[in-house]
Amino acid sequence: MSKKAYEVRVAAVRAELVQMQVELKSAPFPLLLVISGEEGSGKGEVVNILNAWLDPRGVETFSFHNPTDEERERPAMWRYWRCLPPRGRMGIYAGSWYTEALRDVPRSRPEQAEFGEQLKRIAHFEQLLAADHALIVKCWLRLRKDEQRERLRELSSDPRTAWRVSPGDWESHADYKHLDKLATRLRQVTDRAGAPWHVIPAGETRARNLAVAEQLLASFRAHRQRHDLPRPATRPGRTIALRPGGLRRLQRLRLDRTLSDSDYEQQRDAWLGRLNALVREASARQRSIVWVFEGWDAAGKGGAIRRLTDAIDARDYRVIPVARPTDEEAAHHYLWRFWRHVPRAGMVTIYDRSWYGRVLVERLEGFAQPGAWRRAYAEINDFESQLTGHGIIVLKFWLHLSKAEQLRRFRDREETEYKQHKINAEDWRNRRKWEGYEIAVGDMLALTSRPQAPWQLIPANNKRHARLEIIRSSCRLIESVLGD
């Protein structure tokens, strides 16, 4: 391509890119542009040129180097979740989740197997975002071996660009055949609907630059057209159990268990001491703990959390109260706000309500489309698998009480001045949907209770019994994990 023809086309492309950004602001999806390719293919040049062509106020560039200590102390995908753009904005990934997968070139059979697992995690991550309507544009800048050699020689021979060629680039060139085989496998495994690869010839730089920009524009137009189609409004419908086993388990739970004040106080301190020792042991082993509390309104989650934290140094834990998403949270994938609070090694995070809102309140109130909340069971299981796979201890509690006991507590809150802030019209409205919520809880128990992160059902009609049972169960569960 001649310089003159290139400049004419660039002027038009720049105008189209800025118009794309204007349209993206009101679009119900984020845009992720991933730039990958062979060494010397010009990945950095393309990113710099795109940033020059785009309005910088609507785009952010991310580059990932060797993980920091903070990043190593969390599951591998944590640092990528943190850097996702919200709906209406664009992120350019110069170094991405693919950079990490290829960083240590796998050669042995175990390394190749781990490489395959990394690719599966990446594919799942992208499918998760695509299912939430994110536009993912992935461009692989392709250089043949002879083109790579010429590019490296050209850069090395010019004092102005020689700094851009490192010994590692020449090592990659010498290892071109093996790296090309890995790259081909990478593209094959992660080329999915919603996140396909676009291979861009990178031998001629001007044509390469325009090809990336034009692919971005074409992908945006097609995606925008699909999402401009009217979608049916979400309405809560008749609730049908997906897995009746969970509902039966819930309904069989004995709620008549009691504990006197004296028995509670006699046992509480001993169990809190045991829990304190276990949390400190987990911390010494660099094992984080995540507590998840769900339950009926007025079931006593807040009180249980206050008693639980009596056993933990206040410097070592955070309580995350989960309410209606903020505007920032609502502009991201629903799991984004929970990934942000995953604890560092040896620390504790307590979620007062959690990601299970997707399959409970969002399901019942029609905030999520049926396809979205049905898909969420597998998404949640995968999220928790990444936590436990990283060594995090996940403890999940459902506090269950009878409908009659909930009514008594509601009335007590209304009649007691210092408790009135705990009751509102939404609590009463949720109560009228008791049967529907009960079915949804049953499905949650059946579909998301797994050996690595089982649900603990706590009879909560008696608050003292519930609080002590949570502490005892936490001790036993942490002991079982640490003893493995």
Structural notes for this entry:
The chain is of the alpha/beta class and 484 residues long. It is 54% helix and 12% strand. It is built from 21 helices and 10 strands. The strands form 2 sheets. Strands 2-3-1-4-5 form a 5-stranded parallel sheet, sandwiched between helices. Strands 7-8-6-9-10 form a 5-stranded parallel sheet, with helices on both faces. The longest helix has 24 residues, at 205-228. The chain is elongated and about 85 Å long.
What labels would you give this structure?
5-stranded parallel β-sheet, 54% helix, 484 residues, Rossmann fold, 2 domains, alpha/beta, 10 strands
Q: Per CATH, which architecture of the largest domain? A: 3-Layer(aba) Sandwich
Largest sheet: 5 strands, parallel
Oligomeric category: single chain
CATH top level assignment of the largest domain: Alpha Beta
What is the number of beta strands? 10
The radius of gyration over CA amounts to 27 Å
Give me the CATH fold name of the largest domain. Answer: Rossmann fold
Which residues sit in consecutive blocks of at least 5 with pLDDT less than 50?
Answer: none
Strand content: 5-15%
Note the gap between the termini: 63 Å
Count of all domains: 2
How many helices? The count is: 21
Residues in helix, %:
40-55%
Considering the protein shown, what is the CATH homologous superfamily of the largest domain? Answer: P-loop containing nucleotide triphosphate hydrolases
Strand order of the largest sheet: 2-3-1-4-5
